[in-house]
Amino acid sequence: MTDIQREAARRKTFAIISHPDAGKTTLTEKLLLYGGAIQLAGSVKARRNQKKATSDWMELEKQRGISITSTVLQFEFSDHVLNLLDTPGHEDFSADTYRTLTAADSAVMLIDNAKGVEAQTRKLYAVCSRRGIPIFTFVNKMDHPGKGPLALLTEVEDVLQIRTTPVNWPIGQGSDFRGVFDRATQMVHLYQKTAHGASKATVDVMPLDDPRLEAALGNELFSTLLEDIELLDIAGDAFDLDRVSRGELTPVFFGSAISNFGVELFLRSFLSMAPPPAPRVSGEKVVEPGEEFSGFVFKIQANMDPQHRDRIAFMRVVSGRFEKDMEVVHTRTGKKLRLTRPQRLFAQERETVEEAYPGDIVGLTNPGAFRLGDTLSLDATNKFEEVPSFVPEVLAVLQNQDVSRLKQFEKGVQQLTEEGLVDVFMDRRSQRREPILGVVGRLQFEVVQFRMISEYGVKTSLEPLPYTLVKWVHGSLADLDGAFLGNGARLLEDAHNRPVMAATSEWNMDFVKKQNKNLTFFDTPEEYEQAMRERGKAAAI
Ligand code: G4P
């Protein structure tokens, strides 16, 4: 085994998916605590407090009490390196969340014992499920009265269409929650309450036949536990790592993040079950983690720190060893690029990265060099297509309210587009050169307007448009310019000058298609590009 393979094998890159308030911040904080990163745990906590109190670097997060942007936390536990990708938890969805999940090899699905599978969890689950990554379920807040373990398992199976296999089983719930029974070791973990904070839970581990157990639990809880265990052996699915790896079966853990119950047990099992960094597809071939360096940019964030005013591209290392000052090929342009000042970001703090391995996330500061989805690699032929484009569902014209700040307005629109926060379009037929923004969730508009004012000093207004559907279009100039659109469609072009049809409904889109048989329509920019490449090849022959 090479050094690179060894380093890759001890890494786990994952995200926690949940509905707001299920306890993601708390669980993150506790995972960091067990990983020995107490200082980091403090900063996560500080971030939560910031959500409520003092000013945050993303003021809007504070105002809405939500977390919009994602950060990456790295910590070590039991000779493993864990990369935790923080996905935004707000209810209105953004493409950023999807993109962040493309960098994860597995996900922890956090469920509130009382609330079960909530809306946001369902959406995030769908994204993970499409990618087929393993999902580990942590049922949180067992110290609160809830739906009960069996009902929750059924709910997960029915709502998400995934089978469940409980790894441990709760002993009591609400104020009676005393601990969990670990099925693999057949040991009972009894917890003692500690104050919510820095100290780890005190655990008493004993076998089922330990006479202290019945005394500690009392007759009723003890006999319920024995009955539950018997039921489990005949009811739940058997644990099967292959099915877990394919995303068909989710191991389920019970606990209470706030009181540290079940957190360490979860972490240890997670380490033994979660996959190491996965190989990724590049064109016709598969790039294995042990190969020479490659990675892809899955997120770009401008102005992360108002004091720095810079832009950071987050790159996930796919293979090989990444080294500071390394020269790589930026495979979209074919140019060579020296990666100076690579950074690791901890909440607010930054640290220079000397080296990184598959699964790690590196922040790159090369301004303007990167676009979402870009591949960086020693092998110039590599091109990962991991990061999908998102097709906007809501459109609006963004108007500049302050003519004297036109330059800043344009810069802001350009940078936020490059970040992938919005898509920008122009009307092909109108003289009005105001940008039309397209987003997946409406909240993104608020974020754009907020950031335009706070980062670029430009006040803007929005004029909503009725279009809910866009398609990329190919046709001759004459066919495009002469296309008959009716009242429910409009011809735009995107930031790369590709023609785009926007329509108010499926019916109107079909109408335009029927009226303009010489035009070809594509659902995504990738499909459009693919078709153009094939045309180019055919023309060359
Ligand atoms: P989020 O990031 O998923 O939005 O959730 P967060 O961790 O901020 O937790 C949401 C609320 O749930 C917090 O209460 C938190 O303390 C509480 N919580 C988290 N885990 C548990 C648990 O295991 N049991 C119980 N009973 N509560 C839990 P809060 O009142 O909003 O904040 P705070 O005053 O506790 O800071």
Helix content: 25-40%
SS strand fraction: 25-35%
The total domain count is 3
List ligands, each type once: guanosine-5',3'-tetraphosphate
Account of the 3D structure:
- The chain has 541 residues and is α+β, with helices and mostly antiparallel strands.
- The protein folds into 3 domains: 237 residues, 3-Layer(aba) Sandwich (Rossmann fold); 98 residues, Rossmann fold (3-Layer(aba) Sandwich), CATH 3.40.50; 147 residues, 2-Layer Sandwich (Alpha-Beta Plaits), CATH 3.30.70.3280.
- Helices cover 32% and strands 29% of the residues.
- It has 16 helices and 31 strands.
- Strands 27-24-26-25-29-30-28-31 form an 8-stranded antiparallel beta sheet. A 7-stranded mixed beta sheet has the order 2-3-1-4-5-11-6, with helices on both faces. A 6-stranded antiparallel beta sheet has the order 18-17-23-14-15-22.
- About 3% of the residues have low confidence.
- The chain binds guanosine-5',3'-tetraphosphate.
- Guanosine-5',3'-tetraphosphate (G4P) binds next to helix 2.
